[in-house]
Design goal:
about 325 residues; alpha+beta; Muramoyl-pentapeptide Carboxypeptidase, domain 2; 2 domains; four-stranded antiparallel β-sheet; two-stranded parallel ribbon; 14 helices; 8 strands; about 50% helix; about 10% strand; elongated; binds zinc ion
């Protein structure tokens, strides 16, 4: 009896030990398998490339699956991370940003986003898009966005003789109301605004451009005038504003009037369309007298954030 009991006990022990070994084996096996599986995951690859967990989450959230997968077999891309943090980053432009960076590795991500959003990687007039009149006062017209030959703005109204010199002038009704308010406000500060360019139709823009072109060729004409269809004056939303005391394009920039407009015009919906330090984005040499109506909301944003209307349009209006 005792012997059988002992034998049984021994068998139980052996079975138990086998079970324990089996369990340990299973656990080790599972954990090896888990490790292999993990090594196959995106996270493992990206951590190995040098990204932090936070960056990986950020990339996953901001990139399409296809682009995200391309990161798995390459080195850490610091430029891409900075790009995604750019205020005006547009995902549809990602490939163009990356291509531009290859061409200009010394450019900052901010500059690359600005240039690509505003199509500046294309030659002027090469990338040709029809301007969208349904955007009303936010319509974009520049060296890439053109107006139709027979585009005529709605709600044109004649400007009173009090506000201009030269020949008759017309402008969009809303713009005229805003201008008159601004005129009063400027007058309170002893500044007398004077308009010397307003609405210009396609034909008169064509005449101006062609006369330069006939005299000195296309390159010269492109430098000094917009091609017909590419001038903001055809929208009825742009005014060239000088002052009673100063109508000289040479000295206007530092005049009291210009400084007053720089500080106040946005409150009435106007922006300086071609500022001095933004020529690489607007495509136009500085024109401190050229003021464009975009409405108070857009003008205030553009003023506060120091961007061009071209950049504003790409990010807030067109996308
Ligand atoms: Zn102008």
């Amino acid at each position: 009896m005792k012997k059988t009991k002992l034998k049984l006990k021994k068998e139980v022990w052996i079975t138990l030990i086998i079970i324990i070994f089996l369990l340990i084996g299973l656990k080790v096996g599972l954990s090896i398998n888990k490790n292999i599986q993990y090594k196959k995951t995106d996270e493992y690859h990206l951590l190995k490339a040098g990204y932090t967990l936070e960056e990986i989450n950020f990339l996953e959230k901001n990139l399409s699956q296809d682009v995200f997968k391309t990161l798995l077999n390459s080195e850490k891309n610091e430029f891409l991370l900075s790009l995604l943090h750019e205020k005006y980053y547009l995902s549809k432009n990602l490939n163009s940003y990356l291509e531009e960076e290859k061409l200009h590795p010394n450019y900052t991500p901010t500059k690359i986003v600005s240039l690509i959003n505003t199509h500046r990687n294309n030659a002027y007039y090469d990338y040709d898009i029809e301007a969208d009149p349904t955007k009303n006062e936010l319509i974009l017209v520049n060296k890439y966005y053109h107006l139709d030959d027979n585009f005529e703005p709605q709600d044109l109204t004649s400007i009173s003789r009090d506000y201009y010199y030269g020949e008759n002038h017309q402008i969009n009704k809303i713009v005229y109301t805003a201008f008159k308010k601004m005129w009063e406000e400027a007058k309170n500060d002893d500044i007398y605004l004077i308009i010397n360019a307003s609405y210009r139709d396609y034909e008169s823009q064509k005449k101006t451009y062609d006369s330069y072109k006939d005299k000195k060729g296309t390159t010269y004409a492109d430098n000094v005038a917009a091609r017909p269809g590419y001038s903001e004056h055809q929208t009825g939303l742009a005014l060239d504003i000088f002052s009673k005391e100063n109508i000289s394009t040479n000295t206007y920039k530092d005049s009291e009037t210009h400084i007053w407009l720089q500080n106040n015009a946005y409150k009435f919906g106007f922006i300086e369309r071609y500022p001095e330090d933004k020529e690489d984005i607007t495509g136009f040499a500085a024109e401190p007298w050229h003021w464009r109506y975009v409405g108070i909301e857009a003008a205030t944003y553009i003023y506060n954030n120091d961007i061009t209307f071209d950049e504003y349009y790409a990010y807030f209006v067109e996308k």
